Amino acid sequence: MRHKELKAWTCGVAQLFPLAPGRPRLLGLSQWLQQACPVDHFVLFVYEGNHRPLDLFDTFPADVRHVYVEDYQVGPYLLDPFYLACTRDQAPGLWRLRQFAPDHFYLGEYYQTYYQQTGLTEEIAFFVDLDDGAKAVLSLMRKTSSPAYSRDEMQLLECARPVVEQMVREAWALRRAQPRPAQDLDYKIREAFDHFGAQVLTAREQEIVQLLLRGHSSASVAEQLDISPGTVKIHRKNIYAKLGIGSQSELLGLFIRELAGHEGVREVRATA
């Protein structure tokens, strides 16, 4: 960005504040960030406790929104590196998805089966701390036809972080005035994940299944659980036999079908 363009971009901040807080100001924010570098899609999710992600704002066309938002909300978010970073209380800042992705994430079934159908080549996000321990993640997505974000673009976007944080917190304050029910059906989704395979798998096997679904290789699972790769291999063989499957692809398929067939998940999908 040349000096003249940079000056115009920084001056553009003043045009955001007369906009009404909430969606109008977030839309203005997305357009302002677009002046710094091209972005194909924006989405602002709030992760709060065991609730499913709340879509506070997005720019998805209607014909693809179901993949990016509705399908994501009923289960795949539990395998998302950004969501998992929030559960570990990731520090605020601007982050690349690949900074959090497990070693086999881009080879894993979640990426191959779900993430690739979004047609994205890269995703970066502003992490913003909210009240009551909630986390906001404003994702800036690029399609496969676009290049990865350059170092210069990342540095420029980092300069926008104070503005992003203020406007995200303002939007959340408006939404927070209508708190979500304490016993929201969203809890059923996390419960279904935590107990996936519990009828036939041991507690250790369930731990391994969750790591495999999230994109960890056998070596990474071994490191995470402080066991040998050979032990992981034996566990995988036993897991597949108990679940009546023969591959990790079938494991993901079984997981998604389990979520879709869960009574609470069906109710959540119906009311989304």
Automatic annotation (TrEMBL):
One of its GO terms (biological process) is regulation of DNA-templated transcription. One of its GO terms (molecular function) is DNA binding. The keyword Transcription regulation applies. Pfam families: GerE. Residues 194-259 form the HTH luxR-type domain. Keywords: DNA-binding, Transcription, Transcription regulation. Transmembrane segments: none annotated. InterPro entries: Sig_transdc_resp-reg_C-effctor, TF_LuxR_autoind-bd_dom_sf, Tscrpt_reg_LuxR_C, WH-like_DNA-bd_sf. CDD domains: LuxR_C_like. SUPFAM superfamilies: C-terminal effector domain of the bipartite response regulators, Pheromone-binding domain of LuxR-like quorum-sensing transcription factors. This is LuxR family transcriptional regulator. It comes from Pseudomonas knackmussii (strain DSM 6978 / CCUG 54928 / LMG 23759 / B13).
